[in-house]
Amino acid sequence: MSGHSKWHNIQGRKNAQDAKRGKVFQKLSREIYMAAKSGGPDPSGNPTLRMVMDKARAANMPKTNIERAIKKAEGNSDEHYDEITYEGYAPGGVAVLVEALTDNKNRTASDVRVAFTRNGGSLGATGSVAYMFDRKGYIVIDRSTTDADEDQVLLDVMDAGGDDLETSDDAFEIYTDPKQFTAVRDALEKAGYKLANAELTMIPQNTTPVPDDKKEQFAHLIDALEDNDDVSNVYTAADDE
């Protein structure tokens, strides 16, 4: 791996989103609904649903909200959401991928375009930046929750089928092939590790530093995108150092 560490920034975003918890739950409900609608309501036989449910629990989403979204999918609801990915550049030329789940493609496309143009970025054509990212499974073990040292964790990760391990003072970050993500996650849980985070994500092959005079604009763009009700995930190639 390139050494690109995500955990510190994920924690920061989660803290920032605490004030927007209602909106986060709304987005997660939509993801749960779509996962259950397409793959069935039983998470043991629907890895996508299980992953989204884990994500919801990590966000402290109430169990009743999760169950309500699944029951809605089991019913006769005709709601439908399209999965769309937008690509563009943030201030400083930083590549950005935006994943959305929307019931109105025209509205979402317009909102995403406005977010880019008003904050010094530019929306690109399909394929303009996607090739700069790799889909990876991403798992985090908080070091405060385990007595295992780096050698032991690395051994367990390799045995589980993981690709790479990065170690910091507060976390073990594990990367996997997306097809092996579920197996690796389950194996690590079976080995007794408590997972602080487990998701499929997009990892930039290379990172770009955000110029000092563009950092405020960059932050405003990411905030505007993440604040959009239809946007599920925002990935950037920004150098986090």
From TrEMBL:
Residues annotated as domain TACO1/YebC-like N-terminal: 5-75
Domain TACO1/YebC-like second and third: 81-236
Region (Disordered): 1-22
Keywords: Cytoplasm, DNA-binding, Transcription, Transcription regulation
GO biological process terms held by the UniProt record: regulation of DNA-templated transcription
Compartment(s): Cytoplasm
Gene Ontology annotations for the cellular component aspect, listed alphabetically: cytosol
GO molecular function: DNA binding
HAMAP family hit by this protein: Transcrip_reg_TACO1 (MF_00693)
Protein family (similarity comment): Belongs to the TACO1 family.
The protein, known as: Probable transcriptional regulatory protein CBF53_03735
Native species: Lactobacillus taiwanensis
